[in-house]
Amino acid sequence: MSQVNFVEHIYAQPDAIADMITLGHRIPKLDPTRPLIFTGIGTSLHAARIAASWVELLTNGKQRAFARDAHDLAMSGAIQPEDQIVVISHRGSKRHPNAVLAKAKEVGAFTVAISGEGVAPSADVVLTTIPQEKASTHTISYSAALTVLAQLVAGYVGDAGAPLSEALAEAPSAMRATLEIPIADGVVETLVAPTSTPGIIAGPGLDAITADEVALKIKEGTYLWFEGMHTEVTLHGTPAVFRPGMAAIVIEPGVPDGGRTADLLAFLDQLGAKAILCGTHDDADLRFANCNPLIRPFVVQLPFHKLVAELSEKVGSSPDTTHLDTEPWKSAFFDSGIAL
Fold it and tell me: Domain residues for 54?
């Protein structure tokens, strides 16, 4: 088991974000009259979805951006000369994000690449975030990408971006406060119980994207199966697979949700499932600091990062290597080509 790098990256996030905020002068000004497409795969796609959501939230839908899977955009998606393409990646070496950049270059679209240090994607503008993350379970590079994306979005929407810029400045302090809050007693034991998994993580709005992201972190770092989904999706069809004893981590909403979180919790209780609450109140099992709703993607993820660290100690997994150091995963991963 190895989690040294993973834990180090978790706690380095607030300072890294604070440092990056001071570098906003290097962010290019995007054209608000041209389409904007954010793209990536995995965690980077989650960042793309957050960025596209920010555009809509800040402008009340007057401006819209798109988030596309880099595989689909590279293989079958259409790119037009007037498009502005923002490609997000951790390492800068993945096949399909680079294929998107090449495809965009062929038609003359403007391209921005966001990636870690030490790589030089072929784009009109390359925005370097932080040194390459040593852990395979990415945390700090996701937060770093969100920081750059917030700055890009704020510029793209003009005056409407001021609330995001102001909220971003508050993110490091909210993140530090959250990292100081311990996970409630019994949560780890609940999640490692044989009946707990497969389990779900649910939330509405931006938190639904965070649910997808942190479910991936749990799978990568602990080898336990959790699925992230929008709260509303948990109430339509999905209950057919719910069962007594399963674990459901429910992110309490920061915006009105029409009572659907309460509906989900009531259903889980009646079924005999184990509900774990993630929220700001003192009784929450996974607590995070109060913050502006726009920066919840930075803050809400942190209790889950700490949870992965504690779970990995309990089950003997490795967030640093995500099974890449053991067979048969090691050979299957590299021989199959999925690492590209």
Answer: 4-174
Which residue is it, tokens 């089950």?
Answer: 315
- State the pTM of this model: 0.96
The pair of three-digit structure tokens given for residue 289, joined into one six-digit string: 């600091």
238-273: pLDDT as tens digits: 999 999 999 999 999 988 999 999 999 999 999 999
List, in sequence order, the alpha helices (H) in 157-259: 162-179, 187-192, 206-222, 231-234
Q: Is residue 322 part of a domain?
A: no
- CATH number of the domain that residue 124 is part of: 3.40.50.10490
CA distance 1 to 315: 9
Count other Cβ atoms within 10 Å, centred on residue 119: 16
Task: State the Cα–Cα distance between residues 29 and 33, nearest whole angstrom.
Answer: 12
Residue 121 DSSP symbol? -
CA distance 253 to 206: 9
Terminal CA-CA length for the chain: 25
